[in-house]
Every structure is written in structure tokens, then in C-alpha cells.
Please model this.
Amino acid sequence: MIDAIFPNVDMDSMWTATYETLYMTVISVIGTFILGILLGLVLFLTTRGNLWQNIYLNSVTAILVNVFRAIPFIILILLLFPFTDFLVGTIRGPNAALPALIIGAAPFYARLVEIALKEVDKGVVEAAKAMGAKSRTIIFKVLLPESMPALISGITVTAIALVSYTAMAGVIGAGGLGDLAYMQGFQRRDFDVVLLSTIFIVVIVFIFQFLGDWISKTIDKR
Amino acid sequence: MLSIKGLSKQFKLKHQNVMAVDDVSIDINKGEIYGVIGYSGAGKSTFVRLINRLEDPSSGEVLLNGQDLTKLKQGKLRQERQKIGMIFQHFNLLWSRTVYENIAFPLEIAGTPKQEREDKVNELIDLVGLKGREKSYPSQLSGGQKQRVGIARALANDPGVLLCDEATSALDPETTDDILDLLVDINEKLQLTIILITHEMHVIQKICHRVAVMEQGKVVEQGDVLDVFVKPQAKTTKRFVQQLSPLEHQREHLEQFLNGRDDSQVLKLHFIGGHAKKALISELSKKLDIEVNILQGSISPTQEGAYGTLYVEVNGAPDLIEQAVEYAKGSGVEVEVLKHD
Model:
């Protein structure tokens, strides 16, 4: 049946590509989650009147975040080639895409983290201070748990952007469904490959969205 | 026990400097419930935050058991804060934690071992009457229950002082009374010193021993609740006292009795504590040849005893009326002769 509709599709390479896309997305989501929260915390905590009030550090971080958010992803990959080569030892394959994916997505997520942290009730932070809590306690036991549903929604949005990024990275040799669609589907005019790759990507996006919504809803006790 | 000396806080804004708290000095005894009342913007919330240094004071001292909190370094301050409980108008509970976990939070901060923590939390849940709700999240609780969690949380590290920042202002009148009863209960059980900030006079009336009235950052009047109630000096205090006695608003109803004749006077009598129970009126009309006509009256219970207000019209010879006034004063009742405005 599949052979009839998609005559040129080789299911083995389809599954390999799907695995590569999932691999790139999952690892880069984890990396983005960690780096984004770190950057978001710095952005939030160094603002005026906050725990680590530091206008200098705040401006530097904000500029860095804005610059990296401004660079189109496809150009960022090219710019990062030397860095990737140094870090991963190659500029081809799924692993080589990871630095660019994380550096491209983390600043975007950092802004979402900052917004999520701003939404945390100031009174709760004040209550924790009144109890004698250290900054570390306030961050890990108040700010992050209290903003967790928003942090999860934010990483869901970012994860979906990352799926698109992996497709773009594929075009310059990272592998995955984007690579397959471009190399086999577009270059060889096997249009059914493009179609099936698209379907697979859409399904992956739906699964991420569903998972994100479900987790966010489950942990939200408000 | 808690001695506040010349405490001030200045906020520097763009165009002007604002003295939110201006040279406030108050001494609070151990086991006392001390009320601070003021309208919004009077600086009372800032004042209470200066005590545990959620705001750093511009000048002045906060001596808690002889130790000046304003001189403490951050690390030492955090330790001292564990011994100063605080509850808030909007409860400020962590919504991501259950009732049990919220109450356990200050114990986690203090580094209490797990087993001890469990015992303490369960004890507190009993104390504030939340048994069976341990696993509920704050969003599943009513306002009164949330404040009970707030109180339990504030008591977790056995504080010597409890700061209450408008703790009942977001609650309905009935729940307010429940929470105030709970505060009196723990004040007596634990010998806990309570500092209570409010804009509602009945809160002061119901549970405070002493009160300070704040206006524009300054304490304009302080003293025993009963004294302040009966003889309010400052204008703000008078307005607050009027909130409580509905009779004050009806003073115009008395106008028709104020006829300016000297054989008929309207007296306002204040009965305080034990005197409130005396049968003064019947004594007066028996002993002197006068007629006493009761116009209106009210009685209010306070932490220090009841106090009542009675308006009467006295008809008789001018000298007899004067005697009646003297007699009433002699029996320990405050008397005020009302005049035409």
C-alpha cells in the first residue's frame, strides 16, 4: 500500500532520518532547556530591585541574547562551523548540528524564561525571604517550581521551533528528515519523499505539542 | 522585648524623597499583641517590613531581645529571620506545594531533619485546625484556610515574634473573626508576641492590648487600646474610633435634644471595664430629683474588658444636673456634656 502511494520511499532510510531528527531535537531541547534557564535566570535576577541586581551584567546578557536571536538560523550554522569543528570534530552529521541548534534556540527560550519568572508572585519571594531563605533556596525552591508550567509551555514552543531548525540543519548535511526531503526528494525530484517527510515532521510536532500541554497542565496546581 | 527606636525609611524617588516611616519609636512587651493602625499610605506596611529588614531602614534601631537587627550581616540576619514569623494579606503560599509542603518549607530552610520536620508539621496542622487537608493545594482552600496555612508556616521555627501584615484584610468578616480567635489562641498558648498591622479598627478592638496610630509615616498616638478608644486624641484616631461606634454617625439625630436650655442637658457616658456593669442610671434618678431619658447606647468588648457608650438626656434643675455629672464622674464613668455645634 505504502509502495503504491510513495513509490520512491525507502522506509529504512525514512526511519533512520526520523531517528536522526528526533535525536537532534531531543538533545537540543535538553541543552536549550538548561542553557535557556541559566540565561533567563541571569536576565531576571540582575534586573533592578532583584536578588542579584547588576545593571552591567544585565545589559551584557541582554545584548548577547538579542544578537544571537537576530541572526537567521541558517547563517548561524555557517558562522558556527569553526566552533562546531573544534567542539565536535566534524561539521557533518546530527552531532555537528547540536551546537548551532542549542545556541540558536537558547536565547529565544531565555526570553520566555525571563517572562515566566516575572510572573512569579513577588509576595511569595518576599515570604521566602522573611523565612530566612538563601538566594539559592529562592531560585530552586520558589522561582523555578512556581514558574514551571510556563517554563514547560515555553520549552514546548521552542521544541517545535527546533524541529524546523533540524530540517534546516539537514540541508547542510546534518541528516534527518529535512536532509532526506531535500537531497532525495527535491534534488532527485522524488516528490513523494518530500510529502512523507512532511507528514512525519508534522506528526513529531503534534506529539511534542501534546506532551508539552499535558505536562504543563498536570503540574499546574493553581 | 522588641524595642524600636527612631526608625525611619526614606524612599528616593525621581523628583522627591518620601519619608515612608518617620522616626517611629515603640516598645513591645513579650507576649503582647500590639496593633498598628493607619489608612493606606500611612507607612504601616513599610514599618513592619523594616522590623525583619525586608526593607532596610534609613536610620534607627530594631532591638529584639537586646540585639540590634539593623546591624546584622546578611547570614546572621537570615538566621534571625527564621525566628520572626510573618503572615501576609494575600497569604503568599507556594501554589506548587501542598498544605503540608508549604508548612514544611521554613523547616527545610532551617535545615531541620526529616523526622523532626514531619512531627512539627503535623503538630502545626493540628494547631491551626487543618487536619485532613494536608495534601490539598492552596488553590483548593478557602481564604480562611489559606491564612491558617500561612499562620502554621509562620510558626514552624518557633518564632518569638509574629508579624501580621493586614492578615485579615482579604477575608470576610466571619472568617476574620475566626483568624483573630486563632491568633489570640496562639498568643496565649505559645506566649507569642504579635505585631499586627491593619486598617480595621475592630481588629484592634477585638484582640490588641496596645495600639499605635500611624499617619504619614509618624506615630500620632499610642497607648492601651481601651484608653485610645475612650479618649482618642489625634484626629485620625477619632476617625478610626468612629468607624466602630455606629452611634457617632447618628449624632445629628441627637440635635433635637440639644435645645440650649440649662434645665436639660445631653450627656455622653463612657463605661469602661468593671464600671460598665454598674447600674449608674437608676442610682442617679433615685438619688437626685432628675429625669434621665436614655437616647441611645452601645457596648463593645475589647481584649482589656468591655467599654460602653450611652447617650442620655437629663432634665432637672441646673445645679442638680451638675451634681449628677459629678456623681457619675465620681463613680469612674467618663462624662461628656454635649453642646450645640
User: Anything to note?
Assistant: The first helix of chain A runs from residue 2 to 5. Chain A has a mean pLDDT of 92. Chain A touches chain B at residues 121, 123-124, 126-134, 137, 141-142, 145-146, 148, 219, 221-222 (CB under 8 Å). Chain A has one domain: 9-219.
